[in-house]
Write a structure and sequence with these properties.
Elements (H helix, E strand, L loop, with lengths): L1 E5 L3 H14 L3 E6 L2 H11 L3 E4 L8 H11 L4 E6 L5 H6 L4 E4 L4 H11 L3 E6 L2 E6 L3 E7 L2 E6 L2 E5 L3 H7 L4 E5 L2 E4 L3 E6 L5 E5 L6 E3 L1 H9 L2
Parallel strand pairs: 1-2, 1-3, 3-4, 4-5
Antiparallel strand pairs: 6-7, 8-9, 8-12, 9-10, 11-12, 13-14, 14-15
Helix pairs in contact: 2-3
Length: 222
């Protein structure tokens, strides 16, 4: 999912990019400092989402959104501003969301979750299907592929563990060299007499080994 940030303050643009990177699954296609540049970059980069400041030099964010409603109605506009009083006016131009600075990760997550549900595609009997990232419980490396288990089934996907962890860090934690698990599905952790550590995942039938390096982080999630 591609996004564009528009704000005349460099630090504000950097903060949004850092937060979007933490969310995972989003690709930055550019940054704009004023309204006219926003219109140019939307034409050129074709973002799915525009994170738009209201108070910018020249054409303000409301004016930009009004023009985009006609020229690029497919772009979802999320206002990011220090001015809470513009909320009503923002929704009059069909804003998809409204965030007040300083933006917090929780608020950004809530807005993006409404706009975009990341999925993984897989093949089953020659048919392409998909599963929501949020439904994946366990992912394990399997030769050149990744074996995933989700609520209601399992499948092989092309994406590597490295890709999944880089793009969806809010969803997965790496518990072993070859295994990722869903963060909020971790139920319990147990230390074995032999010295190893195992974790129980809600909805998954088997306990999974946890590397020594990952034990502390896993415990923090329980």
């Amino acid at each position: 999912m591609k996004y564009l940030v528009a704000d005349d303050e460099p630090l504000a643009r950097q903060r949004i990019n850092r937060l979007m990177e933490k969310l995972g699954g989003f690709e930055s296609v550019g940054a704009a400092e004023h309204g006219e540049q926003v219109l140019e970059l939307v034409d050129k980069c074709k973002p799915n989402i525009l994170l738009l400041d209201i108070d910018m030099p020249g054409m303000n964010g409301i004016e930009v959104a009004t023009l985009l409603n006609t020229s690029h109605p497919e772009v979802k506009v999320v206002f990011v501003t220090a001015h809470a009083e513009f909320a009503l006016e923002a929704f009059h131009v069909f804003a998809a969301g409204y965030l007040v600075k300083p933006v917090q990760i929780e608020q950004l997550t809530a807005v993006m979750s409404r706009l975009y549900t990341p999925k993984l595609q897989y093949q089953l009997a020659g048919e392409t299907r998909s599963v929501n990232i949020s439904e994946v419980l366990v992912a394990q490396a399997d030769d050149k592929y990744t074996h995933i288990w989700f609520e209601g089934g399992e499948a092989m996907v092309d994406h590597s563990l490295k890709y999944l962890l880089a793009h969806y860090p809010q969803d997965f934690i790496q518990i072993h060299r070859h295994t990722l698990v869903k963060r909020d599905a971790i139920h319990s952790i147990a230390h074995q007499a032999t010295g190893g550590t195992m974790v129980t995942i809600k909805g998954f039938p088997e306990q999974l080994p946890v590397s020594r390096r990952a034990v502390k982080e896993v415990k923090a999630l329980i």
